[in-house]
């Protein structure tokens, strides 16, 4: 998965539909999430599309598997995951993920339906990180 900084660099040079295409491409780059992990417990509430996020702890670093049934939403999920992927759980629990995503200005780039679940996704990721960090 690309770093958030690399994605931002490319995103800044694009406009309109090109940004949508980049988001769709990012969604395709997510690690595959087995259907068995797409459960009520891993589903993000408040999203217009179905979104699932599952944390794993690999050598003290969080690695998320995520998926969505909508291409652009899956790209937004990938963007959020890029901000936290493979970082220590304690760092993710304290991180300002919303601030890290501000340069993408998603609220003005996308419809409110597409971004309404982002705060819930961030909250779920931070909850998982805090739980793993305290274990």
From TrEMBL:
<dbReference type="InterPro" id="IPR003808">
    <property type="entry name" value="Fe-S_metab-assoc_dom"/>
</dbReference>
<dbReference type="Pfam" id="PF02657">
    <property type="entry name" value="SufE"/>
</dbReference>
<feature type="domain" description="Fe-S metabolism associated">
    <location>
        <begin position="15"/>
        <end position="127"/>
    </location>
</feature>
<comment type="similarity">
    <text>Belongs to the SufE family.</text>
</comment>
<protein>
    <submittedName>
        <fullName>SufE family protein</fullName>
    </submittedName>
</protein>
